[in-house]
TrEMBL record:
ATP binds at residues 157, 220-221, 245-248. GO terms for molecular function: 6-phosphofructokinase activity; ATP binding; metal ion binding. This is ATP-dependent 6-phosphofructokinase. The record marks 247 as: Important for substrate specificity. Belongs to the phosphofructokinase type A (PFKA) family. PPi-dependent PFK group II subfamily. Atypical ATP-dependent clade 'X' sub-subfamily. The lineage of its organism: Eukaryota, Viridiplantae, Streptophyta, Embryophyta, Tracheophyta. Homotetramer.
Length: 512
């Protein structure tokens, strides 16, 4: 799945770097502050210290090959004769003026990593620079727009921006490429074989970006591969846009493989949807910022309630099945939070270093405290029956118990035991669905638009089995299977989590 490209700029950077070695007084590339970048090859400038960068190390780092993550293209399994090409209709779109460089070529790439330690050759992947195909319009397309039959489906839980993505897929296909056969599949994967497709057009979807949820409806479970692919074939769909989270994408990989093995001229693409921001590789998922913003209202309310009570604790549970991104970002944005609990960190309640001790001190100092807990945190501590242990939703995801309700009850028991007769209040706010059922904010709406349009461009170029998404702020095409298996967890060793801890002053809550 990979090929090596030695790009000419790599060579030219190497040459620049090497030529600097022989002309010590010239400005070196990548050394912004000459006084901090003495090279050991310049004896008159002193001996090597911590700020030194060896030219040889720079050359080595820059001379690494670029490994391009290859994408599936219909030409990989269909004869070229079945894939006539057409000029991109954007050539004649009155609103576009394709200039030199407007169209993206297969050699346009975006590097996965932009932060490098030039001196490190032992770091993972350091033997090459990983790159992805840049997203964007191609000069030639492989679909006659009049023959396109596009199907759009939304699966899994809600996320702000779902309707915007659908809207922009419809408007983009219609306005940019002249596609007129666009259909919504109602109620998730099961809708392929249990419902009639709904014809979509720009007029119908015009104001959908202002509405939360998904106008196409969604569901969990109901993934029947053969029925889905048969339905796609029977209805002559040749473009499939699947919008959903990790489960949906694992399903999309199976659909893609089945379509490929049947040799159909059908493109499959997925648009990652996860309010939890738990999908890896891409910078962030759409709707996440809206969810964090909406969570502020719950935190503010918890703070007001806590402050207005004697020994008041405001407890807010936020979404995050296996990752604590929403809780973390909401905590960082709020500054009213005393403690943030996430699934990536175990915590203990009792004893020295435990949550109760910490909150007891906060109440003593401030008279109140605000706790934010992600829904997946502390699940291993909540007592559950055998049937609860086994419980799964229709998609096979484990059903979590309510960590907020459990924590509230534990807090009350602790206080009654250790501070009998003293006033104490816990106000538990569970805004779960409120943070994901809202329409996307302006930033997420714009993001959804770019996501939808960059996806359409890739599909019209008949890349298949791919996901479009931003890496380092640039839109790229990533193999679907890679995204489906990726995970984005909070790195509790990095600066962001340290920042949470420095704001809240919370300890690790480990048993001492
Ligand atoms: N491993 C899998 N293989 C095939 N389909 C799956 C898989 N996991 C989930 N699905 C299907 O994907 C859809 C959404 O999955 P779910 O886990 O509920 O949400 P999300 O996609 O948001 O993670 C459901 O219809 C489910 O049946
Ligand atoms: O009640 P539902 O609809 O199953 O949704 C609850 C789950 O959905 C989520 O919001 C998102 O999950 P998915 O993106 O995997 O669908 C989780 O945070 C939460 O556990
Ligand atoms: Mg999921």
């Amino acid at each position: 799945m990979s090929e090596h490209l030695f790009l000419s700029h790599t060579c030219s950077l190497m040459q620049r770097s090497q030529s600097n070695k022989t002309k010590p007084n010239q400005t070196k590339p990548f050394c912004s502050n000459r006084s901090l970048t003495m090279s050991p090859s310049d004896p008159e400038e002193g001996s090597r210290n911590d700020y030194d960068i060896d030219d040889h190390e720079i050359s080595l780092a820059l001379s690494r090959p670029i490994q391009l993550q290859r994408l599936y293209h219909l030409s990989h399994y269909l004869p070229r004769a079945d894939l006539p090409t057409f000029p991109n209709p954007l050539d004649h779109n009155p609103f576009f003026h394709p200039y030199d460089g407007f169209y993206v070529s297969p050699t346009d790439v975006i590097l996965r990593q932009i932060v490098y330690d030039l001196a490190s050759s032992s770091a993972p992947n350091s033997s090459y620079h990983l790159a992805y195909h840049r997203a964007g319009p191609r000069s030639r397309i492989f679909f006659d727009p009049s023959e396109v039959h596009a199907a759009i489906v939304t699966c899994g839980g809600l996320c702000p921006g779902l309707n915007t993505v659908i809207r922009e897929l419809v408007v983009g296909l219609w306005e940019l490429y002249g596609v007129r056969h666009i259909f919504g599949i109602p109620s998730g994967y099961r809708g392929f074989y249990s419902a009639d497709p709904v014809p979509l057009n720009p007029k119908l979807v015009h104001s959908w970006h202002k509405i939360g949820g998904t106008a196409l409806q969604t569901s969990r479970g109901g993934f029947d591969l053969q029925k889905i692919v048969n339905s796609i074939q029977d209805r002559r769909f040749n473009q499939l846009y699947v919008i959903g989270g990790d489960g949906t994408m694992r399903g999309a990989v199976k659909i893609f493989n089945e379509i490929r093995s049947r040799g159909f001229k059908i493109v499959v693409t997925a648009i990652p949807k996860t309010v939890d921001n738990d999908v890896g590789i891409i910078d962030r998922s759409f709707g996440f910022q809206t969810a964090v913003e909406t969570a502020q209202q719950a935190i503010n309310a918890a703070h007001v309630e806590a402050e207005s009570a004697v020994n008041g604790i405001g407890l807010v549970k936020l979404m995050g099945r296996s990752t604590g991104h929403i809780a973390l970002h909401a905590t960082l944005s709020s500054r009213d939070v005393d403690c943030c609990l996430i699934p990536e960190n175990d915590f203990c309640l009792e004893g020295e270093g435990g949550l109760f001790e910490f909150l007891g001190l906060r109440l003593k100092e401030n008279g109140h405290a605000v706790v934010v807990v992600a829904e997946g945190a502390g699940q291993n501590m909540i007592p559950r029956s055998d049937s609860q242990k086994e419980e799964k939703d229709e998609s096979g995801n484990s059903v979590f118990l309510d960590v907020g309700a459990w924590l509230k009850s534990e807090l009350k028991s602790w206080w009654a035991r250790d501070h009998p007769g003293e006033l104490f209040t816990v106000k538990y706010i569970d805004p779960t669905y409120m943070i994901r059922a809202v329409p996307a904010n302006a930033t997420d709406n714009l993001y959804c638009t770019l996501l939808a349009h960059s996806t359409i461009h890739g599909v019209m170029a008949v890349y298949t089995g791919f996901v479009s998404g931003p890496i380092n702020g640039n839109y790229v095409y990533i193999p679907l299977a890679e995204v489906a298996e990726s995970k984005n967890e909070v790195n509790t060793g990095d600066h962001k989590w340290a920042w949470v801890r420095s704001i809240t002053n919370q300890p690790d809550f480990v048993k001492s």
